[in-house]
Amino acid sequence: MLKKHAQFFENILFFTDLVVIGFSWFLSYYIRFYSGLLPIEKGIPPFIIYFYLIIPILFVWSFVFKSFGLYRPKRTSSYISELFDIVKACSFSVLVLISITFFFRQYEYSRLLFLTFFLMTVSALAMERVAFRETLRYLRRKGYNLRYALIAGTGELAEDVLKRIELHPDLGIKVTGFLSNPESPIQNSKVYGIPVIGSYRDIRKIISEKDIDQIIIALPVEQHALTVELLKEIGNEMIDIKVVPDICEFITLRGGIDELDGLPIISLQDTPLYGWNIVIKRGADIIFSIAILIISSPLMILIALLIKITSIGPIFYKQERMGMDGTRFFVYKFRTMIANAEERTGPVWAKEGDERRTDVGTLLRRMNLDELPQLFNVLKGDMSIVGPRPERPVFVEQFRKSIPQYMLRHKMKAGITGWAQVNGWRGNTSIEKRIEYDLYYIENWSLLFDIKIILMTVWKGFKNAY
Fold first, then answer.
1. Closest to 91 measured CA to CA, from 102, 80, 83, 101
2. C-alpha angle with apex 253: 250 to 254, nearest 5 degrees?
3. For the ranges 123-132, 231-240, 441-450, which has the lowest average pLDDT?
4. Which DSSP helix (H) or strand (E) runs through 333?
5. Please, what are the domains in the chain?
6. Is residue 378 within 8 Å of residue 384, measured between CB atoms?
7. Long-range contacts, 450-454 (Cβ 8 Å, 24+)
8. Cys-Cys crosslink for 140: which of 43, 172, 304, 355, Cβ 3.0 to 4.6 Å?
């Protein structure tokens, strides 16, 4: 019965998508040619030539949406992930549509209309999906459209699964009971108020009697053999099977599930920069760095003249640093210390009242203006505007031996500013706290987070700059 309900809701969503897409196409035609918002140079083309395009549009969009998995159950996915899926699917569909119209040489279709249609479709579908999912969540909270589940296991992992399910009643998952180990059965007991209703060997009988839709296997890693036995007991029962691996403690950075030719692979750590994220972050870096260079160019010229006039040595200072995936590069800064400052001391941290600084250098460091040349590193692609600060290889070798998870900060491109820096963890401060903030940034990266850090940098600057 439940699968019939799922298919019913999928059909409703599919039909609603087609209505929204069709409406967006005709509304885009009106906006392009009749609203007066966009310029018209070659007259208004007949509506009929655009009307006929609705057939390939609906076919292409429905095929692409199915291929991109936009009609799979999304009880546990976020709105943001679905929005990105919609943007990717619509982008691909528009490119296919433009390719199709290329062969109709007797007509000249408006590219501006295609752009309007893309924006209209993404916006309308996003609002429609939010409304649809919120309606389903409301129904689930009221007790409709539920999926009844068993949790195999009675340990800490099973308890954690139950807690997370109960925190999200909008998912529509109701845990009917727990199953215990047949070698050490726990009968007539409860786990957080949910009864233990049998052992793994009773599972087929329980599935039949309790009308179970889903089994969640949450066994400790030392009971892997029992997982295999349990799967054999389930056999070909028509239920959904979910396995929660007991390796959560080893997931350090953006863990998830990947797929290799149909084989699921658990990723314990990964970088957030893949697919469209790479394009978005790189595009933002180029735009921001060019804009800042243009605005600050008079100031940079003035700083260069002051350094040249007041001290002996080069204007710029370059130093080897370690960036993303351990790649080494030279970072550029305005020189703030006497020439060859580390000849006697070797590689050391700058400290408060450092005697090696020049008078101009002291001012530049205090105002963080010595970092401006790193914008050229951003344009080259060595760095990003926002990211963990790059460290010198000699210090990296020291920290990686003594600080757990230190090297994970190199899963993101190094930055001029970062979440740690705007919160005061810069220079000769706690490395552990800096790593904590860097990993938080990587784990929660988004373009909006980058913009927030840039604004915080402008507003209050860096702290602890010696």
1. 83
2. 110
3. 231-240
4. strand 328-334
5. 2-141 (no CATH), 147-246 (3.40.50.720), 276-460 (no CATH)
6. yes
7. 450/281, 450/284, 450/385, 450/386, 453/386, 453/417, 453/418, 453/419, 453/422, 454/288, 454/385, 454/386, 454/417
8. 172
Query: What was the pLDDT predicted at 4?
Result: 44
Best-predicted range by mean pLDDT (168-172, 327-331, 408-412):
327-331
Q: In what order do the strands lie in the sheet with 173-180?
A: 190-191, 194-199, 173-180, 147-152, 214-217, 240-243
The residue to which tokens 């800042």 are assigned? 292
Dig out the tokens for 317 from the structure: 């200072």
- Contact 108/114 with Cβ under 8 angstroms? no
CB 40 within 8 A of CB 68: no
Q: What is the DSSP-derived secondary structure letter of residue 141?
A: H
Q: Which residues of 115-145 are buried (b: 16+ CB within 10 A; e: fewer)?
A: ebbbebbbebbbebbeeebeebbeebeeeeb
Interatomic CA distance for residues 50 and 41, integer angstroms: 18
Question: pLDDT of 115-156, one tens digit each?
Answer: 899 999 999 998 988 888 888 777 777 766 677 888 888 878
For 390, the token pair is: 């790059």
* Residue 197: both structure tokens together: 């209703």
The model's pTM: 0.51
76 has a pLDDT exceeding 50: yes
Structure tokens at 337: 């210390």
Instruction: State the amino acid at position 60 in one-letter form.
Output: V
* 112, 116, 118, 120 alpha-carbon torsion, rounded to 10°: -170
pLDDT at 1: 40
